[in-house]
Amino acid sequence: MKTIAINVEKGGAGKTMIACHVAWHLADAGHRVLFLDLDRQCNATDALADFESLGTCKPLFEPGYVPPASFPRLAIYSNRMGGEYDADYPRALTNLSANFPALDPYFDYCVIDTPPFVVVDQLRSTLSV
Fold first, then answer.
1. Number of alpha helices (DSSP H) and beta strands (DSSP E) in the chain
2. Residue 125 has pLDDT above 90, yes or no
3. In 10 A of CB 120, how many CB atoms?
4. How far apart are CA 110 and CA 97, in angstroms?
5. Calpha distance 106→1 (Å, rounded)
6. Cβ contacts of residue 119 below 8 Å, gap of 6+?
């Protein structure tokens, strides 16, 4: 699975719009796309929700993630977690790093809409992108 992370360490820079367009274009071209909406505002989730099924990112940040039996063409995993991982962010990233490879056989691309504060080097090392 190829991973495309849209990251600018500033709010209001257009990350969500770009991420949504990239994901939708790839899905429309027939690719299987995992969309991770890691921004707490979840604007990407709201924009894409009418088109495909929604999931939650929460299991990806916990130990022992098991993917569902099947996924739609565009699977949207939304960050509606309310900040519960802010206190132990390193543990959450460790779990995400361990769980992310389980999704590889199900998708051609992963598009990530990041929150403004995510440092791209940290995300890159976590997901090996």
1. 4, 5
2. no
3. 14
4. 14
5. 8
6. 9
Q: What is the pLDDT of residue 80?
A: 63
54-110 residue pLDDT tens: 566 667 777 888 887 777 777 777 766 555 555 566 777 778 788 888 888 989 999
**Residues β-bridged to residue 66:** none
Tokens of 94: 């460790």
Residue with tokens 């802010």: 86
Quick one: what percent of the chain has pLDDT higher than 70?
A: 74
For residues 20 and 127, is the Cβ–Cβ distance under 8 A? Answer: no
Handedness of CA 4, 74, 37, 22 (dihedral sign): positive
As beta bridge partners, residue 74 has 33
Q: Which amino acid is at 41?
A: Q
